[in-house]
Design brief:
With 256 residues, the chain is of the alpha/beta class. The chain has a single domain, classed as Alpha-Beta Complex (Spore Coat Polysaccharide Biosynthesis Protein SpsA, Chain A), CATH 3.90.550.10. It is 33% helix and 24% strand. Strands 1, 4, 5, 6, 8, 9, 10, 11 and 12 form a nine-stranded mixed β-sheet that branches. Strands 2-3 form a two-stranded antiparallel sheet. Strands 7-13 form a two-stranded antiparallel ribbon. The longest helix is centred in the C-terminal third of the chain and has 26 residues.
Length: 256
C-alpha cells in the first residue's frame, strides 16, 4: 500500500510558529516533526512508498525528505503551485498521479498512534474507508459524519445537522481496488467546477457516498490529534510521547 500525505498548507492559525516553517515540520516529539512521526508510523505499518504534497516553504520539506531517510519507506514530494489560493481538494487533485494502486490518504496535521493506522489497513476491505472517532458533542469545525445502521457513510461535512451526526472524520482514509479509480475520476470531475479551489477533498468523498459504498473504521479510544491551533500543538507535544510509549509497552506485553 502507498500513502499520500497532504502537507501543502502553511497552517495560518498556528502563526507565528508557521511564519516561516510549514505546519508539517513543527517539532512534536523532541526535535522530530509531525511529518517525520507520520512517515515513521507509515513505515512501521508496512507502507513502502509515500508521496508528500508540498506548497508553503516547499524547499524546507524537500530538504527534510532528502536529509531524513525513513528505513523501508521511499518518500517523494509533489508541489502544489496553487497552495496559497486553494484548499486541499486542489492539492489532492495534483496528487492523482500517485493514485495508481491501493493507498492511504492523510492530512499533514493529523497525528495518531500506530494502532489507528493498523486498524484502518487491517480492517475489512472496501473500495473507500473513512477513519472516524466518536465523542459526546461536536463543534462547527469538526468534519462530521452521518452513518447508516451498518456503519456505512451516508454523508460527511462540517455543516451536517447535529441530529444526524454519528462521529467525525480524523483525516485518514483508505482507497482500494475500484475505489482508487473512482476517487481519481471524481477529483477530475470536481476540479472543473468554479468553486473547486475553495473546496475540501472530503466533499468528493461525500458525493461518492451517494452512489457507492463508503465504509468507516472506528478508532474510538485510540490516540490521535489534529493540530490546527497553538493549543493543539501544545497538547500534542505533551500527550504524543506518553501515549506512544504506553502503546508500545502494551504491544510488547501482548506479544510476550
Amino acid at each position: 500500500m502507498r500513502a499520500i500525505v497532504l502537507s501543502a498548507g502553511q497552517g495560518r492559525r498556528l502563526r507565528p510558529h508557521t511564519a516561516e516553517i510549514p505546519k508539517c515540520l513543527l517539532a512534536i516529539d523532541g526535535d522530530r516533526s509531525a511529518l517525520e512521526l507520520q512517515l515513521r508510523a507509515l513505515a512501521r505499518c508496512g507502507v513502502e512508498h509515500a508521496t508528500v504534497a508540498v506548497g508553503f516553504a516547499a524547499d524546507r520539506v524537500d530538504q527534510f525528505v532528502k536529509s531524513t531517510p525513513i528505513p523501508g519507506l521511499h518518500v517523494e514530494t509533489l508541489y502544489n503551485p496553487f497552495y496559497a489560493t486553494s484548499d486541499n481538494l486542489a492539492t489532492c487533485w495534483i496528487c492523482r498521479v500517485a493514485m495508481t494502486s491501493d493507498f492511504v490518504l492523510l492530512n499533514g496535521d493529523t497525528l495518531f498512534e500506530d494502532r489507528v493506522l493498523r486498524q484502518l489497513i487491517d480492517g475489512p476491505r472496501a473500495p473507500v474507508t473513512v477513519t472516524i472517532d466518536h465523542k459526546s458533542t461536536y463543534d462547527d469545525d469538526d468534519m462530521k459524519v452521518s452513518l447508516d445502521p451498518g456503519g456505512r457513510l451516508r454523508a460527511i461535512g462540517k455543516k451536517l445537522l447535529r441530529s444526524t451526526v454519528g462521529g467525525e472524520s480524523i483525516g485518514l482514509l483508505a482507497f482500494r481496488d475500484s475505489g482508487v479509480a473512482a476517487f481519481r475520476d471524481a477529483l477530475d470531475r470536481t476540479i472543473r467546477q468554479p468553486t473547486s479551489l475553495g473546496a475540501w477533498y472530503l466533499s468528493v468523498v461525500n458525493e461518492m457516498a451517494q452512489r457507492m459504498t463508503v465504509q468507516t473504521a472506528s478508532i474510538q479510544g485510540l490516540w490521535w490529534r489534529e493540530i490546527d491551533s497553538p493549543e493543539d500543538l501544545a497538547d500534542a507535544r505533551i500527550s504524543f510521547p506518553r501515549r506512544q510509549v504506553d502503546a508500545t509497552a502494551r504491544d510488547e506485553v501482548a506479544s510476550a
